[in-house]
Amino acid sequence: MSKILLIAWHEFKRHTFRRRFIGILLMPLIILAIAMVSSFISASAAARFESGAIGYVDPNGALPQATNPPDAAFTFTRFDDETSARAALERGEITAYLVLTPDFLSSGDVRLIYWEDEPSSDELVQAFERYRNAQLLAGQPASIAQRVLEGSRFSFETPDRARAIRDDDLPSFLLPLVFTLLFITAAFNSSEYFMQAVLDEKENRTMEVVITSVTPTQLMAGKVFGLSAVGLLQMAIWSIAAFVALSVLRPRLPFLRNISLEPGFIVLTLVLFTLYYVMLGAFLAAIGSMVADAKQGQNYASPIMLIAVIPLFFLVVIWFDPNGAFAVILSLIPFTSPLTLLMRYGMVSVPAWQIILALVLLAAGAAGAIWLAGRIFRIGMLRFDKGVKWSELAASIRF
């Protein structure tokens, strides 16, 4: 075990301090930092137009002047004609004014007139609609008026109510999909390391020395564990950066305020990622043992990476029937279970037996992949100029 850990630590250090890895690690962080700075600048510039005094021209008296709510971002003042509203705009008493058409009560048509700076349209429209509804409901009982103004809140539930999501909690509903995209990106970036870790030692002829001290299985296990740690480190740093950005942007972006992560989802994500990285790394390292150069290795690795993203090709199918037979089968296949389970987790309540069975099968797949990599490495480790034939591969994996 100590030899495996020593090899793992060597591979971890060797790859984490490479400029290429540091560049891959920092690029999303730089993009994220630029996006955050841009959002701050945009928010500061828009803050001037997200509140203020707004006039409205109502020649037919559709909306009589009423008291504005004390906490309203926009306050509305009624004018009988557009001339007086234009004069107030020129004096700076209002930042813009609305012109209600004569058939406003039936058509709802409104024109916005502003001088130089357009107010934030979304906030203004919402504020005016709330003001309009308050005037139209003035004759109704207070309880009814308040209920209409607050609107309806929809809840999306499973039949057994094991999972319920409100309409204002949709960002949390979609968060697992974001994690799947991060996972795919990290896996693809790390795929080259697993093959190159074996090819480098075959090309520089250090393999003869290494195999005198460790067994093929120990060597492959150490490389796989070390390089899996590299990929998980990359994923961890990206996730931490995303959480920091979320914490900073949440007060400024209303649709992010209800995002929350369940502890069960975090634990499931960590276990799935770890097991999948180990399994994927073992298969890619085995490919590195089979081939003579990196170009040939990429040809063999492409189908494996393609199988891993199959759930994304059937995202619509999984979305509309997350507990269907097709989604359940993908959840149990080791190569597709991580992405499928994470996507389903945000949609429905995944039965516990499916999660447990998927983890057991994934762990078995990881262990089997390491064993297989050791067997393949045994026959391919000293073949520097040619790869392993499929007939030789089939013979090597017989018990």
UniProtKB/TrEMBL annotation:
Highest rank taxon of the organism: Bacteria
Matches recorded under InterPro entries: ABC2_TM
Membrane topology: Multi-pass membrane protein
Membrane-traversing stretches: 21-41, 173-195, 224-245, 265-288, 300-320, 326-343, 355-374
A cellular-component GO term for this protein: membrane
A Pfam family assignment: ABC2_membrane_3
Subcellular location: Membrane
Keywords in alphabetical order: Membrane, Transmembrane, Transmembrane helix
Keyword match Heme: no
Keyword Coiled coil carried by entry: no
Gene Ontology molecular-function annotations: ABC-type transporter activity
Domain ABC-2 type transporter transmembrane: 20-373
UniProt protein name: ABC-2 type transporter transmembrane domain-containing protein
